[in-house]
Structure formats: structure tokens, C-alpha cells
Fold this protein.
Amino acid sequence: MSLKVLFAKKVLFVSSEVFPLIKTGGLADVSGSLPSALKHSGLDVRILIPGYTAVLNQLSELRTIATLTNLPVIEKAELLLGIITETQVKVMVIKSAHLYEREGGPYADMNGQEWLDNPLRFGVLSKVAAMLSGEHSPLADWKPDIVHCNDWQTGLTPAYMKLTEKSEAKSIISLHNMAFQGCYSPAWLTTLNLPHTHFSIEGYEYHGQLSFLKAGIVFADAITTVSPRYAQEIQTVAFGFGLEGLLAKRGHEIKGILNGIETSEWNPKTDPYLCKNYSASNITGKQKVKAALQLVSGLNVDADAPLLGVVSRLTHQKGLDLLLPCMQGLLDSGCQLVLLGSGEKDLEQEFMALAEANPGKISVTIGYNEPLSHQVMAGCDLFVMPSRFEPCGLNQLYGLAYGTLPIVNATGGLADSVIDADLHNIKDGSANGFVMIEASAEALLACIHRAVALFKNDKTTWRKIQKNGMSQNLSWDNSALEYLELYKTLIS
Ligand code: ADP
């Protein structure tokens, strides 16, 4: 990390998931690595997260620093302080056995059923974040200048800061995915001690419900998205999920900052999950990783077979239903597929049926598996990501870093990070992947065929495109600097 900026302000980074403590998706990756990058730039950063059992079990040096009172429903909770061993970033944890210490995920139980008290669980998270920056903070020795909120789970924070906590700190809400907004019955207003006066179209009301995300967008001092393209897209009907009008009104204030990747976690040179490490200048190890992946996945070990990879939530957003009708054509041209993911049951079943019908050619693993996700990322030739919308996307960035050329739809952060291998871009040295012309099965098949033709027939160009991606600076360096500039502007 090369940022050397003296701007010793306090930042409270509020998130419902943080890698490596707890992760369901890209939000955790960002919440793990951005605070660490900001800390390196000289900021005094603390994360605030709910005390899920997994979090309590993994943090070192945990100690109580305050008792939180006047909270909705539970009245009291403990505020703990610990440290993430890997990054040395300080983390404040809300310890409430009643709210957070349960078997299951951060948002849902073991059967995928959303916790019914999520408005309370994340209302309390938002309330505590606001209290810590407010007039009557329970912490005497640490008060943030900036409160950086992330997604709907923290959306009430800016509202509490302005309406009930008399906070002088500046607030930011980062939008990682507009599809999730946290809309609940207005009965929660009373439970969460939110003023009814702001339950209106100008406030946190959305079609008769209390919207956590809208509260964040209305009351935050600044709004960011996780890519520049997504900042534009969410101001349109197709991507705004009903909030496009409100977002367009604040359009000139929305700043898109492309996510970086944690290069200590995602680096083929040092990745401990790979049987052989490799780099842009010595890529031969990638062949060994491919063979090992084929072997462990039950695929025919064949260096010449174009190996396609997928690591993803299996939902409509990710567009993987478009891959299903392509598979026969791809198998006919000698491709193999390795897929790791979970989500919609019908999609899971269709991919599993395909794998059963095509032993040695298609491998499907349903579930969440961190080591395998690294091996897929490294061992494949191509990474398929035909998302219908993608606020940033991290997997295509991992693909670039690992010489696994991404095949993407031109949306959000995918459009901002993948440059199509057309003749012009190959010639000027900018090509780093393949971009579909639209989100359809036909366009996906055509795009993969184009990539496969290059893989089979022009290894020199293929290597050049791999090198282009692998030598990009995909780290947080530049993006953290942009957040820093935003913090400075807000404070000044
Ligand atoms: P999103 O947050 O929308 O799911 P992103 O591409 O931003 O998508 O980030 C997804 C993150 O979750 C990546 O780090 C990816 O490797 C990881 N991931 C997704 N599904 C799995 C899985 N089944 N096993 C392991 N990691 C996964």
C-alpha cells in the first residue's frame, strides 16, 4: 500500500459482514479490505459489526469497552473491541446473545428463511453506529468524524444521526446492490424509535413501508456506488429498483468508485490454496493447477480442453440460467465446465442434472467453499459472469489477476473493468477479457465461442491478453485514495 497521506481522522465503517469473520458475498470482501487500505493511509478506522457467534469466535483480544443502553426492545448490549489478526484492523462488536448469537447465517436461518426480527437486528446496528457518533456517545475516547455505511442493513444510521443522536459526523452510504432494500411494516417505526414525521415520500417511506435503504439515501451526506457505471445505471428504471427518481435527484452527488481486491488474499503468486503458484512472467504453474482442478472435480484431465469456471450465487441477477441452453453447443466444441455456487433451487437442480448427464465434462458443487473458489479461479481458462446487473463484481477482477479471462455482460462494474478482446483492443494492448453484446443465451454462446476459438488457435494472443489483466493494478491503492478524497471533501 503506497498511500502516504496525513489525514488522521476517525472513520467508523459499519457493515453487516466482514471477511474473514463472516461472509455471504462481495460486501464482506470489501468490508474486510477497504478499512485495511484506509488504515494504511493513516486514518484511524474502526469497523462496527453485529456480534454473530462466528465473529465472537474469531476476533482476538476481545474486551468490553462500553455498555450500550436505551436500545430498541433489548434495552442493553455490550460493546466489545477486538482486532482482525490478518489486517490488524480494530473491530467494535455489538454483543447481544438475543439478537445475534444464533445458528445460521447473518440474514437467514439454516433453511434459508430470513430472520423475522431482521429489522430489529439491523435497526440496532444502525442505532449503535449513530450513537457512537452522537452527542451522548457511550465512548468517551473515540468519536468518528466519518460514519461510512454499507447497504440497507446500515441504512437507518444516517437517519438516526440526523434525527435523534445530534451527530456532527458526516455520513456516507455505499450502495453495493440496489436489489436489496430492507422494506418492512411501518409498525417498526415505533419499535425502532424513529420519528413518524419522516414517514413520507421525502423521508423513509416507500410504498407504505419503512425502507432502510431509502433512509440511507435520503439522510446520508454522500452516496457512493461500487463502480462508476453503476452510479449512472441506478438512476434509470431498469436498475434503480424503484428508487431511480430519488437517486436521479441526487445524481450529481453520487460517486462511483470501483472496488479493489485484497491482493494478499487473491494473488496467484502466493495463494496457499493452489498446488503450484504462478505469475504473469512465469505462468506454467497455471497448467498444473488446471490439471489438479480437473482431477479433484472428476473432469477428464486435458490441458487442451477449454475449461470454463463459475463461482457465484445462483440467482436471476447472475444470469447463469443463460448458460444452461449454451451447454450442449459448448460441450460439442470440447469445453468443460466447473461450477461452484448455491441459490435458487431449480437452477441448482438443472446444473446438477447436467453434471450427472455429462461425467468427466461438467462438475457442479453446490455450497460455499473458499479453497475451491480459489482453485476454480486459478485453474480455469475462462470465467463466466453473464450478470443481468452487477454493481461491481469481484470475481471478474479475481479472474483478471489469475489469468483466467472473464466473459461478462456489459453492465455495472463488469463494463468498467473488462475490455473486450476485439481486434482494435488486442492491437492497442488493452484487451483483458470478453464482453457480450447483450444479456441473452445467444450472445453468451457467441461470446464464449469467440473466446474458445482464440484459446485454441492463437496461443500468443491469448497469453498477451492474460498478461494484460495480470499486470493491472487491481489493488485498493487507487480506490482507497478516492474514498479518502471524498472524506476530506465532506469534512472540509
Ligand atoms: P455478490 O456479492 O453479488 O455475490 P461478487 O462478485 O461481488 O458477487 O462477490 C462474490 C464473492 O463471494 C466472491 O468473493 C466470490 O468468490 C464469493 N463466492 C460466491 N459464491 C461462492 C461459493 N459458493 N463459494 C465460495 N465463494 C463464493
User: Anything to note?
Assistant: Residues 285-470 form a domain with the Rossmann fold fold (CATH 3.40.50.2000).
